[in-house]
Amino acid sequence: MTERHLNYIAGEWQPAFGGATFEDRNPADERDLIGLFPDSAATDVAAAVASVASAWPAWAAQSPEVRADVLFKAADLMSLRADTIAAELTREEGKTLNEARNEARRIAANFRLYAGEALRLNGETYPSEVAQLVLSLRQPVGVVAVITPWNFPLSMAARKLGPALAAGNGVVFKPSEITPLMGQRLVEVLLDAGLPPKLVALVQGKGAKVGQAITAQAGVDALTFTGSYAVGKQIAASLSTDTRVQLEMGGKNATVILADASIDKAVATIERGAFGLTGQACTGTSRVLVARPLYAELVARLEKSAAAIKVGPGTSEGVQMGPLATRAQYDKVRAYVGIARDEGGRVVGGDALPETDPALAHGYFVRPAVVSDLPENSRLWREEIFGPVVAIRPIDSLDEAIRLADDTEYGLAVSLVTGDLPSVLRFARETQHGIVKVNSPTTGVSLNAPFGGLKHSSNQAAKEQGGANVMDFYSRIKTIYLGA
Ligand code: ADP
């Protein structure tokens, strides 16, 4: 029996208007149909926005303790359900069970952090010559649309839903069509924790259809999006000018290895950043700049350790890297491996896993790839691949490292492996990236520290994650002059 999942609109679980559906399949075995989900369109969006618009003022008028309480309960429920949801995440997105558990278990911490922020939605007072007292009051924005990608389907959504609800907003949530079940699980947790039924709407479906309908729908006061630059740009162009918008997009992140670095540490740092989550993290390492004296040894060591990574279904014991999340991702990664070869690069790995292995024959498995000796202006060096492919290039100075690390349209995360403090300080100050990590991979961030990129990685409306700074996007300030 195929499971048929539903939207959640106006407090009711319901199919898309007209009844259309789309399939959700397991990337480790595409014969495994997880379920059918509503293929929603503009009519569903209109109903969702109308119901959320009717519900948020009462939620905003509640005491902050009530809002915090719901998020604390959601955190407890998420902790209880984390392992079950993690298994579903592996089935739906492909990441290993370890990676899935890490993601699912973090959601509780995320909800707790924002539960606290509900109680700290502070304003300020200002000395004034025109009134007895001038103060700023933070109020909700209203209806917040949340559009998320598939690679961290729980944490990308929780880091938006948590602060949006804490600040007193209502939410229309459209998860990625690749991971609709994870979107549903998050909404179930919030509803079971006592969220008012009409305050959140879950609208499942395709980006080009329901996603676009959200950007065209009147009544959306703010939209927060994480995904590709191409889609982010399209969203920004189609929104009305009075809709507040936050866009977090791609990266072409580099790790720099200076001459004093230990090769062991360099290999471990690159491997985690480049091949963790099958290379499908927006902060993933796709370029390495290494001091020339270490180049040959680092290339050889990385080739060897990448070849030893055990690739397979995320549920299997000992597997270190799961499949790519979709057939499109699989085709894209393999195409880039071909491009690297055509460009004259030395490529080790990157091939599809033998389809003769029955456990792998129906999934999107590729070996991690290490690419060296690329020419200048290589496409592999410039374009975001979003897969387990890392390109390596030698450098001759810190100046060159900074110049080449920043020689990209993106500016999300960059990392540096060295013990040389003056180099660290100069690099950290000068690089055009939103996140700089020293002696650690480009991936892996703290949920209580500001997150966001520069250049094409973000529209830089407000940082995500972190504490009070997050509320700048989810609330607006009214200035009140009190006279007597
Ligand atoms: P990714 O492939 O990394 O998920 P996308 O940018 O393609 O990146 O998708 C991110 C999210 O944006 C998904 O939920 C997707 O359905 C949605 N989306 C795609 N196209 C549009 C669009 N034109 N308008 C609004 N949302 C869209």
Characterization of this structure:
- The structure is a single chain.
- The protein is α/β, with parallel strands linked by helices and 484 residues long.
- It folds into two domains: 267 residues, Aldehyde Dehydrogenase, Chain A, domain 1; 186 residues, 3-Layer(aba) Sandwich (Aldehyde Dehydrogenase, Chain A, domain 2).
- Helices cover 39% and strands 21% of the residues.
- The strands form six sheets. Strands 14-15-16-13-12-18-19 form a seven-stranded mixed sheet, sandwiched between helices. A five-stranded parallel sheet has the order 9-8-7-10-11, sandwiched between helices. A three-stranded antiparallel sheet has the order 5-6-21.
- Helix 5 links the parallel strand 8 and strand 9.
- It is globular.
- Belongs to the aldehyde dehydrogenase family.
Low-confidence stretches: none
Tell me which ligands are bound.
adenosine-5'-diphosphate
Percent of sequence in beta strands: 15-25%
Q: What is the level 1 CATH name of the largest domain?
A: Alpha Beta
The chain-level structural class is: alpha/beta
First-last Cα distance: 70 Å
Shape: globular
- Number of structural units classed as domains: 2
Question: What strand order characterises the main sheet?
Answer: 14-15-16-13-12-18-19
CATH homology-level superfamily of the largest domain: Aldehyde Dehydrogenase, Chain A, domain 1
Protein name: Aldehyde dehydrogenase family protein
Organism: Aminobacter anthyllidis
Keywords: Oxidoreductase
GO molecular function: oxidoreductase activity, acting on the aldehyde or oxo group of donors, NAD or NADP as acceptor
